[in-house]
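ASSEMBLY PREDICTION REQUEST
Request ID: AP-0331
Submitted by: J.K., bench scientist
Number of chains: two
Total residues: 528
Priority: normal
Notes: Please return the full assembly, not individual chains.
Input sequences:
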Amino acid sequence: MELIPPAIEVRQVAKAFRGPEGERLPVLERLSFVVPPQQFVAVIGPSGCGKTTLLRVLDGLTPPDGGEVRIFGRRVTGPGPDRAVVFQDFALLPWATVLENVAFPLEIRRVPAPERDRRARAAIALVGLDGFEGYYPHALSGGMQQRVGLARALVVDPQVLLLDEPFGALDAQTRLVLQDELLALWQRRPTTVVLVTHDMAEAVYLADRVLVMSPRPGRIVEEVPVPLPRPRDQSVRRSARFAELVEEVWTCLRGFVRL
Amino acid sequence: MSVLVASRAWAARVRMRLPAGVRPDRYRLARWGSLLLCLAGWEALGRRAAGTLTLPPVSAVLQALAGQVRDGRFWAACATTLEALAVGLVLLVALGIPLGLLCGRYPLAGRLAEPYLGFLLAVPASPLVPVFVIAFGIGLAARVATIVAFALPLLVLNTAAGVRLTPPRLVEMARAFGAGEATIFRRVVLPAAMPAIGAGLRLASARAVVGMVVSELIIISVGLGRLISTYSATFDNANLFAVVVVVLGIGLGVARLMTWVERRLAPWS
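STATUS: Completed
Returned structure:
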């Protein structure tokens, strides 16, 4: 008998889209997994397996055709204040400053302006962008823009953080730096995280558990626990254990890769 | 309002850049220089044609203009014409922008309205003037209707196109954070459409001036249009050109006004 419900419970979720000729294209099928509170989970799969659709279902942007998603026991019927998303392409408002972008979710929730300002500034400081509050996104580098995206997600103090290939659009060095920053932030204030990625090393480096999805229609077909000690830093990548874990994920995935 | 303030501040950083090393006053010199050249050419041509009824020299036109401005009837004509234009422009904005937003955001509205607007845009609107006269009489209303009919399609279609250019990712982002339709409209769609609205406003107001002249030349003979008809019927070319110059001035004035409005709406464009 569980007293605390799991942070995320995905049960038998199915989702299909309509193809150009009206045919049914199943994207997710009988997809299930459970994430306990404050766990960091990575979802990895071949491209086009429905990872992003899964994330949209978790966020409530896309209603599933079948099955259900529960966040801390509450059934998801739409976007909610308990969840926040970080987007691959940052999705910042180009006509708004860093401060306004980060404060946007609070504005949506009608948080009074002084509190909005205070909390947005705190979130900006958290991702190390203090001093850039008045900048517009186009004046920032990709890495800085994604920090804004991260701050915008953190400002609402989400119980569940959904990351949609957040570092996919960044160069390799920036990606490593931001991975470490994400880990440090998560260490300081643990939340439940679902990271969608196609980078196996990234999944192993960041997550407690890697869920492997099958090609469309996507299901969770394998689960690789990552028992690497925390706090982690990039030196763990050189360990034999790390290589084994990446290899294990690759073994699950390799059969799915089609050119 | 905060959208406007924010976009203005944003724009200050992205303001139009001239090619390196070119100073804006050099462009100004070229512009005024070419105008002077045109006027000089006109004067020379006019003098050679002296005695015929074709082209009066600039000096004669200016003289005629000086005579006009001392005449109360000229100012009454200006007032009549500008009244219709002003009412028309206000109506244009009040109808065009909301209609355009609606058409851009809701496919049903777009599908319903846009064929008619496209039709209005493609065919000459002049044949509609008699229709408006039948509908509204020969008063102010028919002239305003003509102005709006000329200009509205451009503003609506431009605004709708701007709305459709809203990056879907930004709408999705707003939705992911729980934004309702009103917030999405105000904070995402409207700022995204702002440059197109501004451009539409400039184009549409130019067509409004055309509508203004056309309505007064066809059937509803009042205002500056009536002066044009009268002077051309009596072959009083100097006065005719003087009135035409005034109409051109009104057109330029409206264009300047709209450029100013556009800067305020979408300073980054």
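REVIEWER COMMENTS: Residues 1-6, 8-18 of chain B have pLDDT under 50 and may be disordered.
SIGN-OFF: pending second reviewer
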